[in-house]
């Protein structure tokens, strides 16, 4: 197949192979159906909608539809795109007035606004819970004379192949006809002094980006070999959309990974065959290897309904998932696949997520996000380190047995491990729930050093689940942070507090503190002695790992505190790792 302009070498062959599987499945017992997006212009009670909103939003969504179509076509899928509900060449938009005045709404009001829209849409025969909905919120302020803009609108989205919702804003100056303009310069409440064109790039690009989320696309950034195309839409491409029209950059583009995901979405495939079928997938014979500065991945994918592609996200810790880069593979007739990536962040730990793309549009949902994820580290010189993955892989059969509640098999598997870290971790996982009998104050005088987890706390509480020592309370149960795996540790989902009676008999407390791998929260750790702060960390986020060493001379009560940061308690899986007392 000839290389299409703008494709990376190898992409055309993957597209052709994926389409052969995808189209072949949909053409047999076909169920063709054209599903359209549904649009709402929501406005607070008593506030008029933005000027010319129908014409402007028609231009905007047509522009975005054409963008998706061009990108899909460039990548070999043909001009597949979203479907817009049009009447006399104008977008069908449902104008809905809210129940309350403007002062009652803000950026966190997305769900409340949607709840106000649902019954109105239901009266028009639209079950918005089963469709893809775009809600433009009239919560922006535009002063055309002073050229000043602020807003307090919800601006986020989520969804999958069955349906989703994107919350956007609308304002009179947002119009695709303004994208090429370098002047006038306006004052944006968030972005400062920028051109009217750049302002439109940010907010129209934001519509395209959030729509991607409503269609099921996660974040990802462009790889170095993709950068010639511009900025990935689902990375920072929401801010670069249309930059090329002003000669200020290459604009935004769709990665092959996300074009593959969209190809089976009913909006793009115009097929609803099997759309609501349950899905299942497994990966056997998974191998991760390193050659120079590249991670190579291979395995055998079995899926029902069939999978036409597999997307890999190599996600370095920190930056949420915005910094994830992608790789793709199309399984052969036996399910075998291979892929690789050298677009890895040096000096950081990371997580590899493998997402099967089923022919009915499903990606397995959260199940795939949690089941097929694997840790790695990249050294400062760019060389990947898979030691944590190897330990996790060795423990996988034991974890699977425990998930099936087959303890006998799990014990049998553990006995086969040679002496070392893997065997010790296996023993800790099997012993979960076992409680030490003595406090640190009751330890024998000859004990010069010991893990804090070998002692009984006088009090313990965690923000989610139950206290856990030397294991995590969910599969794969291993203590992982900063790309490393640890044998001992204390689970402390914020807000958490653990107290230990020391009796003034210990001199030092040391170890590491970090966020459990794969968790996106943020916490602050604190060590207290007799009520006084002895050590306090900075805010620790995903991938964060810090050392501590605290003087305990004369301390009778040791307290370990994990506090949530200002962003709440979501995913705040703090860990005290290798916590050790010494005399």
Structure characteristics:
583 residues, alpha+beta, Immunoglobulin-like, 4 domains, six-stranded antiparallel beta sheet, five-stranded mixed beta sheet, 10 helices, 22% helix, disordered N terminus
Structural class: alpha+beta
Number of helices: 10
- Could you give a short account of the major beta sheet? 6 strands, antiparallel
| Shape, per Cα inertia axes | globular
Q: How many domains make up the 3D coordinates? A: 4
* Rg (CA only): 27 Å
Q: What does this protein look like?
A:
The chain has four domains: about 10-270; about 280-385, Immunoglobulin-like (Sandwich); about 390-430, no CATH class; about 435-580, NPCBM/NEW2 domain (Jelly Rolls, Sandwich), CATH 2.60.120.1060. The strands form nine sheets. Strands 23, 27, 29, 30, 31 and 33 form a six-stranded antiparallel sheet that branches. A five-stranded mixed sheet has the order 4-1-5-9-8, with helices on both faces. The chain has a five-stranded antiparallel sheet with strand order 17-16-19-20-21. Residues about 1-5 have low confidence and may be disordered. The chain starts with 10 loop residues before the first helix and ends with a strand. Helix 8 runs antiparallel to helix 9 and helix 9 packs antiparallel against helix 10 (about 420-430). It is an alpha+beta fold. Helix content is about 20%, strand content about 30%. The longest helix is centred in the first third of the chain and has 22 residues, at about 55-75.
């Amino acid at each position: 197949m000839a290389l299409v302009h703008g494709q990376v070498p190898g992409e055309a062959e993957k597209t052709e192979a994926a389409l052969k599987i995808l189209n072949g499945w949909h053409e047999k017992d076909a169920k063709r159906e054209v599903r359209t997006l549904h649009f709402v212009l929501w406005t607070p009670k008593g506030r008029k909608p933005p000027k010319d909103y129908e014409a402007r939003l028609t231009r905007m969504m047509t522009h975005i539809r054409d963008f998706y179509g061009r990108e899909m076509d460039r990548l070999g899928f043909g001009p597949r795109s979203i479907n817009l509900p049009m009447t006399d060449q104008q977008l069908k938009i449902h104008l809905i007035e809210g129940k309350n005045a403007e002062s009652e709404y803000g950026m966190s009001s997305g769900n409340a606004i949607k709840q106000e829209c649902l019954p109105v849409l239901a009266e028009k025969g639209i079950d918005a819970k089963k469709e893809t909905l775009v809600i433009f919120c009239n919560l922006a302020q535009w002063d055309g004379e002073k050229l000043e803009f602020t807003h307090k609108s919800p601006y986020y989205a989520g969804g999958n192949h069955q349906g989703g919702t994107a919350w956007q804003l609308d304002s009179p100056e947002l119009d695709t006809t303004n994208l090429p303009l370098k002047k006038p310069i306006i004052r944006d409440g968030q972005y400062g002094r920028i051109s009217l064109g750049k302002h439109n790039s940010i907010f129209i690009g934001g519509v395209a980006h959030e729509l991607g989320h409503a269609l099921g696309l996660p974040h990802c950034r462009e790889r170095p070999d993709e950068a010639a195309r511009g900025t990935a839409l689902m990375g920072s491409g929401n801010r670069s959309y249309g930059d090329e029209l002003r000669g200020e950059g290459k604009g935004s583009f769709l990665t092959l990974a996300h074009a593959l995901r969209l190809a089976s979405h009913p909006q793009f495939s115009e097929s609803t065959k099997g759309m609501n079928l349950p899905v299942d997938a497994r990966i056997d014979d998974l191998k991760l290897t390193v050659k120079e500065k590249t991670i190579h991945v291979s395995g055998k994918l079995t899926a029902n309904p069939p999978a036409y592609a597999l997307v890999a996200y190599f996600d370095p810790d920190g930056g949420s998932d915005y910094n994830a880069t992608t790789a793709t593979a199309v399984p052969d007739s036996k399910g075998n696949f291979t892929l690789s990536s050298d677009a890895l962040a040096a000096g950081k730990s990371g997580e590899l997520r493998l997402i099967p793309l089923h022919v009915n549009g499903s990606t397995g949902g959260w199940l795939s996000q949690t089941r097929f994820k694997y840790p790695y580290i990249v050294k400062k010189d760019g060389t990947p380190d898979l030691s944590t993955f190897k330990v996790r892989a060795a423990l996988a059969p034991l974890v699977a047995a425990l998930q099936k509640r087959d303890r006998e098999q799990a014990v049998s598997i553990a006995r086969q491990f040679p002496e070392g870290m893997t065997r010790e971790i296996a023993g800790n996982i099997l012993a979960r729930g076992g409680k030490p009998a003595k406090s640190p104050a009751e330890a024998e005088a000859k004990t010069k050093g010991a893990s804090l987890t070998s002692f009984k706390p006088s009090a313990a509480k965690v923000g989610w689940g139950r206290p856990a020592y030397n294991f995590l309370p969910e599969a794969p149960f291993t203590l992982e942070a900063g790309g490393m795996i640890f044998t001992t540790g204390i689970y402390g989902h914020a807000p958490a507090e653990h107290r230990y009676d020391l009796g003034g008999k210990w001199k030092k407390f040391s170890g590491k503190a970090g966020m459990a791998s794969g968790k996106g929260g943020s916490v602050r750790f604190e060590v207290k002695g007799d009520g006084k702060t002895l050590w306090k960390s900075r805010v620790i986020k995903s991938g964060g790992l810090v050392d501590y060493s605290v003087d305990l001379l004369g301390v009778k009560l040791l307290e370990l505190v994990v506090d949530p940061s200002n962003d709440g308690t979501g995913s705040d899986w703090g860990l005290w790792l290798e916590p050790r007392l010494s005399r």
